[in-house]
Amino acid sequence: MNESSAPRIEINLAKIAHNTEILMKLYRSKGIEITGVTKGICGGLEIAEVFVNMGIKTIGDSKITNIIKMRKANINAEFMLLRIPGLSEIKSVVKYADISLNSELSVIQSLSKYANKYNKRHKVILMVEMGDLREGIMPKDLHSFIEKVMTLPNIDIIGIGVNFACFGGVKPTNNKMRLLAELSQEVEKKHHLSLTYVSGGNSANYNWFMESNNTMQVNNLRIGESLLLGRETLSRLPIPDLYTDAFTLVCEVIESKIKPSVPYGEIAQNSLGVTPQFQERGNIRRLILGIGFQDVLVSGLTPILDLEILGSSSDHTVLDAKNVNIQVGDEVTFSVNYGAMLSLMTSSNIHKKYLKMI
Ligand SMILES: Cc1ncc(COP(=O)(O)O)c(C=O)c1O
Predict the structure, then answer these.
(1) pTM > 0.85
(2) How far is Cα 218 from Cα 302, in angstroms, rounded to an integer?
(3) Are 305 and 276 contacting, i.e. CB atoms less than 8 angstroms apart?
(4) 203: Cβ below 6 Å to ligand 1?
(5) Catalytic center residues
(6) For residue 77, what are the contacts with CB-CB under 8 A and spacing of at least 6?
(7) What's the CATH fold of domain 247-355?
(8) What is the predicted pLDDT for the residue at 3?
(9) CA of residue 113 to ligand 1 center, whole Å
(10) CA–CA separation, 279 and 261 (whole Å)
(11) Which CATH number fits domain 31-229: 1.10.10.10, 3.40.50.1000, 3.40.50.1370, 3.20.20.10?
């Protein structure tokens, strides 16, 4: 088995480098620095290296295990834990992450305790809830929260942040960004803090950014999908001049036969626990690929040829070959969305092939 075995994901590093260069320049034109997010690629070292070589200074990941991997491989960046830490992982967070996003006092107290013990300082960005209803301190509670955090040894409040369009699908509008900017000014004034990070969100902030002449105090975005897949994430539209095809899944056909289009026999649940329904198309050429929902979010795959995905079980995906002539051993390629990319990059069963030329 080598990197050219199938199923494999082909990752074009030159396209990711291009996307990184264009986006950094674009966001910098209005005073915003990018934190490069590696959670969608399982903290992949080759891609983290590209981010850093293109000038990214901070890498964000939601998994401390990914941060440990990148840190141990000497990726030359500051590391930000993007997901608020669990109490059970504090020791590793203090040891390996420079910054973490936070919203719970007990967690920051524990970070303080271990930072003190390890004789380190740990930087926190306080997440503020602004409508998407995932992590965050309610704005009315922010000032009293900050007062308590400021009493904790070895903790530096370096910023405030918000997150949008991840859980509730709430848009980062100019009004939301203004609230964040005003809050950052209040925090600086009231607590005599200088905030290095006023972190306005993620790839969903692209439209707000493009429409704003003044991005106010917002000076950071944590960007994953736009760098990797070249899209904004409110409508998943391509961002001009970026590559949307840096990742391609390549699978091998392991069976190709003419068979009926509808299962026959008494029908019950399938491996996903659902009773599937199929359209009657007469006899069709059915292709089987050696990949299934164990390794990829199948709904996030789009065949590049005119083929149709009929369904999948844990290790098989079945396609209607339609009019395309495909035989056993042939390769079938797919473009991927973020969920498919994330699952493929996380799966140890999928070979990773890195391409260096566009
Ligand atoms: C807190 C946080 N910030 C930033 C991101 C990056 O989001 P995106 O990949 O849409 O840019 C994510 C999700 O991956 C996240 O959870």
Answers:
(1) yes
(2) 36
(3) no
(4) yes
(5) 39
(6) 36, 48, 51, 52, 56, 57, 58, 59, 70
(7) Elongation Factor Tu (Ef-tu); domain 3 (2.40.30)
(8) 74
(9) 28
(10) 7
(11) 3.20.20.10
